[in-house]
Predict the 3D structure of the following.
Amino acid sequence: MVKATTNHKVSRRDFLKMGSISLAGMWLPAVNLRSSAPRYQGRVCVEKTDIFLKPSFSEERVNTLWKDTVFPIIEATAGEGEPLHNRIWYQMSTGYVHSGDIQPVRTLVNQVTAQIPEVGILGEISVPFTDAHWAPRKDYAIAYRFYYATTHWIVAGEQDEYGDYWYKIEDDKWDIYYYVPASHIRIIPNEELTPIAPELPISAKRIEVRTKEQAVIAYEWDHPVFMTRTATGAKFSNGDFSTPPGRHITAHKRPYRHMAAGNLAYNGYDLPGVPWVIYITESGISLHGTYWHNNFGRPRSHGCINLTPQAAKWLYRWTMPIVPPHEQFAYEENGTAVDVV
């Protein structure tokens, strides 16, 4: 992500200049090397990915990593050759893996909050992954695997007969509940949800989604204040899912959403805990955080505007309408303008 400081609309030349700043940082959030906080790790978010001797697909392949393998990231670096839309690679102890198949994650274990508000509270998975069970016991069947940076609505806390504490999670798509180890969920404090620049009128803010450059730019009074890369809608064998062009409005927002549609064996999806959802159409097209890939810069979605969770959270706080911390959604007639071009 890059914050812009220019005082004019972003031209193609400006875009290319801005896009070259902190290129590796777009795929790996900044890490304070002197901090005691856990370093970033990588989680394989596809069925499998290969390790190469050097950061290039033309180099020697040295090993294969399978889905949900977690490893320490030593460094993010720019590789050579294809793919041109994403040249970032992650260095690990045995070689390099392309960043597009790797979700940057951390392992942060949290203190348990025994008292959950009656209305519920928003939480975020803070470990590479954790399993959601049908009941608050490790030997109960697993319903889903929840991934780092996904967000979920906590409605209660329960302790099992072994003394382990669990959070009860409400599914917003189905009328069911799951149980997740409480230490694996970070309860999001209210100050992280405060609006950004709320003093500006609705007419002062605008988002531009550039499908050709695969970039999202936020403007205040036509001055760019934020830019990030994206992956917009694409054409698949079973249809054209391109993000609809034109002007849209962010009238509906949710801090989390279970998104599911279609046949999983034929381009369908089932994604619990999609974070920071900003709807722009009644049919469900939205800007939102993404945890199932890290390959921004090329169309690949079912119409939505895929972003890193960090970028989606910034835009969620910046756009209208405002979702109060202890509410699960906001729906108003007016919102922030979004131009898809």
Notes: The longest helix spans residues 309-318. The CA atoms of residues 108 and 126 lie 5 Å apart.
